[in-house]
C-alpha cells in the first residue's frame, strides 16, 4: 500500500483521541447495559451481566442474548461504519457537510432497493443487494461527473447534491406509481430500522467491516495529508487521485453495508465526525473516535426509538429528528464563520 498511495502509513493514535475513545467506550457500555436491561420484560443489571457471562437462567439468557444483544451489536457496528464513512467523506471534501447522506449515496442505495422491491423480489438479501448496487452505481456516476483531471472536493459536493436531488425525485415518483402494498414495503425499509434483525445479520456485517476497516485505518496519515490540499499532499509524495478514489470506494462500501443491513439511517455519518473532532480537540479527521461516536449515537437513538414513546419506532426516525436539529445548528455556525 505504501507504493500505491505514497507517503507514510500509520495507525498511531493521538493521546487526545485515545482519551476521547476511552470516554466514548465507557458511555457506550453504560447505555448498552441499560438497553439490554430495558424492555417489555425488564431485566436487572446483575442478571444482564450473568447472562453475558453464561451463568443466568435460560429465560434471562434468551431475553438478553437472543433478543436484545444482536440488536445492540448491530447498532454499534452500523453506527461505527456510518461514523467512519462520514469522516472519510468529510475529509475528502474538506467540508463538514460532505457526508454520504448529503452527497447522494444514501439516495442511490434507496433507488437500488426500490427497483428490487418493485420487480417483486422483496426478500431481505435481494433488497440488500439492490441497495449495495444502487450505492455503487451512484458513487461511480458522481465520481466520473466530478472528474476533471482529478475529482476535486467542491465538484464532488455540488454534483453529489444534484444527483441526490434527482434520485430523491425519482424515488418519490416510483413510490407514487406503485401499488399500496409495494409502496408500504418500500416506506418501511426506507425509514431505517433495526427491528427484526438478529445474529443472522450480525455475522455478515461483522465480516465485511473486518475486511474494510483495517485498510481505512492504516492510511490515516496520507488522508490527513490530503486534507492540507492537493498541492501540499502531492509535494509530500501522496498519489492524490489514487488515494481519493480508494477512500471513496471504502466510504461507499461502509455506507452500502449499513443500507443493506438496516436501510438508509440518516445523519449519523454527518454528526459523528464533527462531535468526535470536538471531543478529541483535533484539527484533522479522527477516524477511531468518529467510529466510536457513530456507534454510541446509533445505540442511544435506538434505545430512544424502542422505549421513549410507548411504541417501537424505526431508529431512522430518531436520527433524522435529532440530526435535523444538529444540521440546522451546523449551518448557522458555518454561516457565521
Quick tags:
337 residues, mainly alpha
- Tell me the distance between the termini: 38 Å
Strand segment tally: 0
Query: What is the helix fraction of residues, given as a range?
Result: over 70%
Molecular shape: globular
3D architecture notes:
With 337 residues, the protein is mostly helical. It has helices at 2-5, 15-37, 45-53, 58-93, 105-118, 124-146, 153-177, 180-190, 199-218, 220-227, 230-235, 240-262, 268-280, 287-307, 315-336. The two termini are 38 Å apart. The model has no long low-confidence stretch (mean pLDDT 82).
Produce a short descriptive summary.
With 337 residues, the chain is an all-alpha fold. The protein contains 15 helices and no strands.
